[in-house]
Write a sequence for this structure.
């Protein structure tokens, strides 16, 4: 009879993988994700190309030379051009007037004329440059010896790496990356439990409405049939995840070195942390293994519940009420894990990761921050043992439930079926 | 081993009613065994117990001399009354799936499936999706799936529902052929004409109890009300002179006059024939057995009266 299990798994798997909807969603989702990843960069690329030309009319005669242009703002020195002449010049996006009293009373003497309003970024850049220039001139006025050297020695620039003291090796981690990773994994888990758990449920209900069920159960035991469905649909989910990570991994393997090579990587501490964490292969692998174990555990646990619902009801309409009861703990787990992210070591975090209804979601948000090994083991053991207990109970409900045509069961009746010999 | 499958003192309770109450049957090897009864009598529950789909609350099912186990299921072919197929799957793939669930290897399964498809004239449907099939076509596929693994016990629940007379005929022919090849057939139906035609033995279940069991011929004789048909040449009225309860019939195709006579018991046959022989030239004389239809109705009514509905 065990061979029956593998035949059921194969059928469930191939039937779904061959469907057009599966192929399309598997290919389209990573494309969307990539598009979302690159959209900000693309937008930046386009906005950068529009550099603004700012005409500078300098009545002090010493400030203009100290203004530095960058990619977005280009300072042009007009020389003798008057304000009115500059205004009519279409080549200028803005005109910066530094009045003769600009150094003593910049509040009154510095004015920026522009066509339309400038962006916040360019506005603050220009004012920053003007301030720097004025400060520079004012400092020089004190005639301090070795001023340049002193300034250079006084200047402070903080880049603060965060070291995880719970780990044996001191590796730089990034809390932002952990946060994002936790969020993404939680959302993925939520999505997969709902999509694939309900797929198990509909697959059972479909067999009832097609009346094919009795033909199947006369050849394979209901327990094996149900297990076969859960595993078969689970394999579909794994296939999809593998394809997705394959595509994303391929893209990021190109993108990461490029990001690391960018000059910002050296100066931005968060960014450096992200790069360091992503390049830490050991951490990534252990994280991936744990996450996969919780992912699979969460899927198995909830799909067994959905399978029981599917076997207890006749049609999708009857199932919806019971489905909402089953999805409640998933949502509670997601909400709880959001608060757990802010405090991954609290008592609540610990207990939520022991209870099997919430542990997959909670652990997803805790794992990137580092969780003691014994806690992970306890959580996994509880999760998988409760899955096995659940499937044993569900198989009983299933055996009785499948032959209850045309009757909408109450929760009390389902519990009675579970205890039925 | 004379009986391939026996069920002894089977009782099965559902939440609100008793589906089977101390039912015993014994199905002899190599015969067609009819399982009859009104709707809701418990036939399908009994069939599910024999199939190891549900377990009885008490009682034992033996298969080939040993207690029925899950492993025996591969030697049983079951065509349920509630039957369907996966709509989105292709016909051939689907037949292969069921054949492999019954333990056949892919290669042998495909070879014999092709043969059966040829035999029932549905080869061109192999690559079609089930949703394109007519109901009769789908039933043929289900029939093939049931018999493909050459089970020694075949169980058909209402096999002819949904078939036109021509295809029902083909199916009957195939069922008898399988019996001749050594299979035992259990066969549940409301169609009494097909019972007379196919079944060697029957069991009649009513209100969860076995109310009548035995070989068809014996049962019909047991229910016989000693009515006989006589064909003869001579003056029709002459038979009235015999002093027996005679009803005249028409002229049969061979040109003889017919009449039916109700006798008080079987011992009255000789005196009646002696008396009739004086009056007319007897061409044939035969016992009129009641139809299974009549037996079904009278047995069920009798049992309902002796055992009024509970609650």
């Amino acid at each position: 009879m065990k061979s029956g299990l593998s035949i059921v798994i194969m059928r469930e798997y191939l039937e779904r993988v061959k469907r057009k909807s599966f192929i399309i969603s598997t290919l389209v989702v990573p494309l969307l994700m990539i598009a979302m990843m690159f959209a900000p960069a693309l937008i930046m690329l386009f906005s950068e190309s529009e550099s603004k030309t700012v005409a500078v009319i300098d009545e002090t005669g010493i400030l203009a030379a100290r203004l530095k242009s960058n990619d977005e703002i280009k300072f042009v020195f007009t020389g003798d051009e008057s304000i009115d002449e500059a205004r009519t010049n279409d080549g200028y996006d803005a005109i910066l007037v530094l009045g003769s009293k600009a150094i003593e009373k910049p509040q009154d003497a510095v004015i920026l004329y522009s066509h339309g309003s400038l962006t916040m970024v360019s506005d603050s850049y220009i004012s920053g440059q003007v301030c720097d220039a004025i400060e520079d001139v004012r400092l020089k006025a004190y005639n301090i010896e070795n001023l340049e050297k002193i300034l250079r020695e006084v200047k402070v620039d903080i880049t603060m790496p965060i070291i995880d003291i719970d780990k044996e090796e001191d590796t730089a981690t990034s809390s932002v990356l952990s946060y994002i990773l936790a969020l993404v994994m939680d959302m993925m888990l939520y999505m997969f439990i709902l999509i694939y758990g309900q797929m198990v449920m509909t697959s059972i209900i479909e067999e009832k409405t097609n009346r094919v069920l009795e033909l199947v159960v006369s050849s394979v035991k209901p327990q094996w049939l149900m297990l076969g469905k859960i595993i078969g649909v689970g394999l579909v989910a794994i296939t999809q995840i593998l394809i997705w990570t394959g595509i994303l991994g391929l893209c990021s393997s190109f993108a990461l070195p490029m990001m690391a090579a960018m000059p910002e990587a050296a100066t931005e501490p968060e960014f450096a942390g992200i790069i360091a964490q992503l390049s830490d292969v050991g951490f990534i692998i252990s994280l991936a293994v744990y996450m996969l174990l919780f992912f699979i555990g969460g899927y198995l646990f909830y799909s067994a519940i959905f399978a029981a619902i599917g076997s207890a009801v006749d049609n999708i309409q009857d199932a919806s009420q019971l489905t909402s009861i089953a999805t409640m703990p998933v949502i509670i787990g997601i909400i709880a894990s959001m608060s757990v992210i802010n405090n991954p070591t609290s008592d609540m975090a610990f207990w939520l990761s022991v209870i099997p209804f919430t542990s997959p979601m909670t652990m997803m948000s805790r794992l990137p921050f580092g969780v003691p090994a014994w806690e992970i083991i306890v959580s996994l053991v509880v999760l998988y043992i409760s899955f096995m207990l659940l499937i044993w109970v569900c198989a009983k409900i299933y055996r009785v439930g499948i032959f209850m045509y045309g009757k909408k069961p109450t929760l009390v009746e389902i519990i009675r079926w579970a205890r039925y010999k | 081993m004379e009986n391939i499958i026996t069920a002894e003192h089977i009782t099965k309770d559902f939440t609100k009613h008793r589906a089977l109450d101390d039912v015993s049957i014994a199905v002899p090897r190599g015969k067609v065994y009819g399982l009859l009864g009104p709707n809701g009598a418990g036939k399908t529950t009994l069939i599910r117990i024999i199939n190891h789909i549900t377990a009885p609350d008490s009682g034992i099912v033996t298969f080939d001399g040993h207690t029925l186990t899950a492993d025996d299921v591969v030697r049983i072919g079951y065509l349920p009354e509630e039957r369907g197929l996966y709509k989105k799957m292709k016909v051939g793939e689907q037949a292969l799936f069921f054949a492999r669930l019954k333990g056949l290897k892919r290669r042998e399964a495909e070879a014999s499936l092709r043969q059966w498809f040829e035999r029932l004239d549905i080869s061109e449907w192999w690559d079609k999706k089930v949703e394109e099939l007519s109901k009769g076509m789908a039933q043929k596929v289900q029939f093939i799936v049931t018999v493909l693994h050459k089970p020694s016990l075949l169980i058909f629940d209402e096999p002819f529902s949904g078939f036109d007379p021509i295809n029902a005929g083909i199916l009957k022919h195939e069922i008898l052929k399988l019996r001749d090849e050594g299979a035992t057939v259990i066969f549940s139906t409301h169609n009494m004409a097909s019972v007379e035609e196919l079944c060697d033995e029957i069991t009649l279940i009513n209100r969860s109890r076995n109310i009548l069991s035995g070989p068809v011929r014996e049962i019909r004789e047991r229910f016989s009300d000693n009515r006989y048909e006589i064909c003869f040449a001579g003056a029709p009225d002459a038979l009235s002179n015999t002093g027996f309860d005679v009803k005249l019939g028409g002229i049969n195709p061979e040109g003889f006059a017919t009449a039916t006579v109700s006798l008080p018991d079987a011992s009255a046959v000789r005196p009646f024939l002696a008396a009739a022989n004086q009056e007319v030239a007897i061409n044939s004389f035969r016992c009129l057995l009641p139809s299974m239809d009549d037996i079904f109705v009278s047995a069920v009514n009798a049992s309902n009266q002796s055992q009024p509905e509970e609650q």
